[in-house]
Amino acid sequence: MYAIIQTGAQQTRVEEGGKIQVDLLPNPVGAEIELNKILLLGGETLSIGKPYVEGASVKAEVLEHTRGKKIVVFKHWRRNDSRRTNGHRQQYTILKIKSITA
User: Fold this and answer.
1) Can you tell me the distance from the alpha carbon of 59 to that of 37, in angstroms, rounded to the nearest whole number?
2) Cβ neighbours of 61 (radius 10 Å)
3) What is the pLDDT of residues 76-90, one digit of tens each?
4) The dihedral of CA 24, 25, 29, 30: what is its sign?
């Protein structure tokens, strides 16, 4: 069985036992959370939500909080000898999917 869940502005396909990386969540490491925004449930039968599947949930455990690779944001204004360099590292939460219930 698999599900397509929505966390923040992202949609992710998940299966039991899998690990996913989502935007930073406020839950502490080791906490078990329940995700209720299920867009689609797949398996023997397909259930499509309008917009969410009612009564469906995904339980996940927070494994760790981490940061992504650093990206360099470089802005340059032509003919002005002006430039600015910034860096950014996105914060993520790693989740392990425990169960999918319909």
Assistant:
1) 12
2) 16
3) 999 999 999 999 999
4) negative
